[in-house]
Design a protein that fits this description.
The complex is a heterodimer.
Chain A: E1 2-6, H1 14-27, E2 32-36, H2 44-48, E3 51-65, H3 75-79, E4 85-86, E5 94-95, H4 105-109, E6 115-130, E7 133-140, H5 147-157, E8 163-167, H6 174-180, E9 185-190, H7 194-209, E10 214-221, H8 227-234, E11 239-244, H9 247-254, H10 259-262, H11 266-282
Parallel strand pairs in A: 1-8, 1-9, 2-7, 2-8, 9-10, 10-11
Antiparallel strand pairs in A: 3-6, 4-5, 6-7
Chain B: H1 15-25, H2 42-46, E1 49-57, E2 63-70
Antiparallel strand pairs in B: 1-2
The chains are: A alpha/beta, B alpha+beta.
Chain lengths: 284, 73
């Protein structure tokens, strides 16, 4: 079972929910993997305190043009959807590595076999153990701007388990899409503010296009009938639970501690949310 | 013209709140650009009158929506 924590708005509590769920589900006897796919700013390790077992660079395959062989035919530039390789009448084709999505199309179509691919580092993958939870995170190198290939590698490196928890990057564009892809369910973490609601609607639109089942967890909830729960009721979006706006939770967070360990009563709420998620995934 | 950029690594730290607050202090002509194109929220605070919507066609064939606006006061 793969569950992704996503959110249009940043700072709503994706990592808080993902790390607490991982801990609680593992304590309940599930084999859990936690995947931090927020590769621009992976923070999950702060709460999970994993022991890192393996670490390796993540590369992408970038074309290199052999000037001797290039006939300037232009086939490579024709197939590239991102203008990452451009052919001129004079001189060999030029490669713009930053724009390259490493699809390999140019290498395939080149009729004179003038293109070879070279690995180029773009990020790092870490694998570890956090008190029984399998821990993985990806970090995009400074200066790199394409998260999806790194996210893909993190997901590919994940071991077999009962529950795979994806901590997705915020937003509703390519990195978020790559992170939630293949999930049995997407949990949208939001807060009861106009900003939370506005960005929640954008993310729901994105997930409906991807045809992924979804539900909501309202974080920093203050009262029963807030604007997000009213919206969810009207739009028939399931709400898996609420997490209270509690100073003790904020204090645990500021010290990098898991609230389910540090704050009495928090574990119970996470367990309830976990049960609600499982029953939605398992319902026919 | 001076250009100030408000950024943050972590989400939800208060970029939009700070920009909106600075906007109330701005003297003379000020242009505010919400570049958080994934989930732009500045309009929720400033409630601008939308004058024009422009669709931007990027080279790869994808498009993003930009809004030009003016706030009262």
């Amino acid at each position: 079972m793969q569950i992704a924590m996503a959110s249009g708005k940043g700072g709503t509590g994706k990592t808080t929910l993902a790390t607490n769920l991982a801990r609680v589900a593992q304590d309940m006897g599930r084999r859990v993997a936690y995947l931090d796919c927020d590769v621009e700013e992976p923070n999950g390790h702060i709460f999970m305190s994993p022991q890192i077992i393996a670490e390796r660079p993540i590369t992408k395959q970038i074309p290199q043009v052999d000037a001797e062989r290039c006939t300037h035919c232009g086939e490579c530039g024709e197939i590239c959807q991102y203008n990452a390789i451009i052919s001129f009448r004079a001189g060999p084709a030029m490669v713009f590595a930053d724009l390259c999505h490493a699809c390999g199309g140019c290498t395939l179509v080149c009729p004179s076999e003038a293109i070879r691919e070279q690995p180029r580092p773009m990020g790092r993958l870490r694998i570890g153990d956090a008190d029984g939870v399998q821990f993985l995170d990806g970090t995009l190198d400074i200066g790199q701007h394409m998260g999806p290939p790194v996210i893909r590698e993190v997901k590919q490196a994940a071991p077999e388990c009962d529950l795979r928890i994806i901590d997705a990057p915020p937003g509703a564009s390519c990195p978020a899409v790559e992170a939630v892809r293949g999930s049995d369910l997407v949990v949208l973490v939001t807060e009861p503010t106009p900003f939370g609601l506005h960005d929640l609607k954008l993310t729901i639109e994105m997930l409906r296009m991807l045809q992924l089942p979804l539900g909501v967890v309202i974080n920093r909830a203050e009262r029963d009938r807030d604007l997000v729960s009213i919206y969810c009721q009207q739009a028939r979006v399931p709400v898996f639970g609420e997490l209270p706006d509690d100073r003790a939770v904020a204090e645990a967070y500021s010290r990098g501690r898991l609230a389910c360990v540090a704050v009495p009563g928090y574990r119970r709420r996470i367990e309830e949310i976990y049960q609600n998620i499982v029953s939605m995934v398992e319902s026919p | 013209m001076k250009e100030l950029v408000v950024i943050s690594g972590k989400g939800g730290t208060g970029k939009t709140s700070l920009v909106a607050s600075l906007a109330t202090l701005a003297q003379g002509t000020a242009v505010l650009a919400d570049c958080d194109v994934d989930a732009a929220d500045l309009h929720l605070v400033l409630e601008p009158r939308i004058e024009r919507r422009v669709r931007n066609h990027a080279a790869s064939g994808t498009s993003a929506l930009y809004r030009l606006w003016q706030t009262d006061g």
